[in-house]
Design a protein that fits this description.
Blueprint lengths: L2 H11 L3 E5 H16 L5 E6 L6 H9 L3 E4 L2 H9 L7 E4 L5 H10 L2 E4 L2 H14 L3 E8 L21 E2 L4 H10 L4 E7 L10 H21 L5 E3 L16 H19 L4 E4 L3 H4 L3 E12 L4 E5 L8 H5 L5 E3 L9 E6 L8 E8 L7 E4 L21 E5 L2 E6 L19
Parallel strand pairs: 1-17, 2-3, 2-10, 3-4, 4-5, 5-6, 6-7, 6-8, 8-9, 9-10, 12-14
Antiparallel strand pairs: 1-11, 11-12, 11-16, 13-16, 14-15, 17-18
Helix pairs in contact: 2-9, 5-6, 8-9
This protein binds ligand LLP.
Ligand LLP binds next to helix 10 and helix 11.
């Protein structure tokens, strides 16, 4: 993104502020979709809203022909608000409430079931309301995606889905097939996030296709789709990651191999989040002070892990650039730290930056995914605004929260006043 535009945005809307590049989002989505469509025409891409749920961005992706992957009633409503039809939405979650399930039924989304217990609950609700719904099961293929443990979701010990092992998933399909009110449409898995190697994806799809073949042979069940979830990593720090083309090439090879054996070609569904928006966003913050201790030099900025949780939560790396420091010499090694009352609030450790001063604007890169969407009001700090860039024009798409918003839903009992 152009530095002078970013500095103008910081001047106009203040800091901290999230800024997204609309063209980049469109390009990322198109590259991803085309990688799969060109090799496997029956591919469908469901953007994972959790990465960035801002309505303006959802509208952009809707325009590009995306469908929607949601994980909560809030995300479901956001998708509907952005114009996605129920038929274009898949709803995945491991602990759906009765209200969630009723909303899913009324909105006609595809419900991705996570356990037998949930299936029974869904069926009871359907019966009592004389309704039906399209479903898939999330299955656990027990594959280690070799990413951060907190985002490895398809390993043996994971809470998600029904294990393929011990025929548990097979039994779920066999049971569901007998139910009147559910229409079985497909199978789903999601093995993890920020995966930079194609091997785990290939292994997982191979297991999934063997399972699909078994459903066909033993239950005479022909699924419309296989959904391989999201998870494609991005380059945060010259990571050696795979491209959508490489991922598509490998996955389509697996599908082709199986379809040669079975003569059966299901739709391929994908749920990228990070790849679509991750590198299309920066977080701008302002340096408040610079401090030298006998051991370290710190840059104190006006945001923290309330604004960007990833470094504190996953030890993740985001490139940091001093937009005001161009042409200034004297590079130094700094820890860029936030304004939160915990020493874990480090946004960038030991970064080589030009001599930095109070008032400088820093850009924290690749924060379009899981940035704003994981932000909080911790330490009673209002959440930042979001701005969408389109060429040279900048549009506010979410207003900055104000201090008064912190108190909006609170009540003080009469006797305490
Ligand atoms: N589908 C399902 C069912 C998922 O659980 C996820 C992410 C995705 C799709 C999208 O995955 P992606 O393409 O974005 O990797 N907060 C973490 C990431 C958590 C991802 C959880 N599930 C982070 O900041 O790295």
């Amino acid at each position: 993104m152009n530095h002078s535009i970013l500095l103008k945005v910081a001047g106009k809307y203040g800091t901290p502020v999230y800024v997204y590049d609309e063209d980049r989002i469109r390009k990322n989505f198109r590259d991803f979709l085309l990688a799969f469509r060109s090799r496997y025409p029956k591919s469908k891409v469901f953007y994972a809203l959790k990465a960035n749920t801002s309505l303006a961005i959802l509208n952009v992706l809707k325009e590009e022909g995306s469908k929607a992957d949601v994980v909560s009633a809030g995300e479901l409503k956001a998708a509907l608000k952005a114009g996605f039809e129920g038929e274009e939405i898949i709803y995945t979650n491991n602990a759906k409430t009765r209200e969630d399930i009723m909303l899913a039924i009324d909105s006609n989304v595809l419900l991705n079931i996570d356990s037998m217990d949930e299936l029974n609950r869904v069926h009871d609700i359907l019966k009592s309301r004389n309704k039906s719904i399209r479903i898939s099961f999330r299955v656990n293929p027990c594959i280690d995606p070799k990413t951060h443990p907190k985002i490895s979701t398809g390993i043996r010990e994971s809470k998600f889905g029904i294990h393929i092992e011990e025929d548990l998933a097979f039994k779920a399909y066999r049971f569901a097939r007998e139910l009147d009110n559910v229409e079985i449409k497909g199978v789903h898995m999601h093995i993890g996030s920020q995966i930079t190697d194609k091997k785990p994806f290939i292994e997982a799809l191979d297991k999934l296709m063997a399972f699909v073949k078994k459903l066909r042979e033993k239950l005479d069940l022909e699924l419309d789709f296989v959904d391989v979830g999201g998870g494609l990593g991005i380059d945060y720090n010259s990571d050696d990651t795979i491209s959508p083309d490489e991922l598509a090439e490998s996955l389509v090879q697996v599908l082709d191999r199986w379809s040669k054996r079975t003569g059966y070609e299901p739709e391929l569904w994908l749920e990228p989040g990070r790849y679509v928006v991750g590198n299309a966003g920066v977080l701008l913050c302002e340096v408040q002070s610079v401090k030298e201790t006998p051991y370290k030099q710190f840059i104190n900025v006006d945001c923290g892990f309330n604004t960007l949780l990833r470094p504190a939560m996953y030890d993740s790396f985001h490139r940091i650039e001093n937009l005001s420091g161009k042409g200034r010499g004297g590079n130094k090694t700094y820890d860029v730290v936030g304004n939160i009352c915990e020493s874990g609030d480090v946004l960038g450790k030991e970064r080589n930056l030009p001599e930095t001063k109070a008032g400088d604007i820093l850009a924290i890169h690749d924060t379009g995914a899981y940035g704003f969407s994981m932000s909080s009001q911790y330490n009673s700090r209002p959440r930042p605004p979001e701005v969408l860039l389109w060429g040279d024009s900048a549009e506010l798409i979410r207003e900055r929260e104000e201090i008064k918003d912190l108190f909006r839903n609170q009540r003080i009992p009469e006797d305490l006043i």
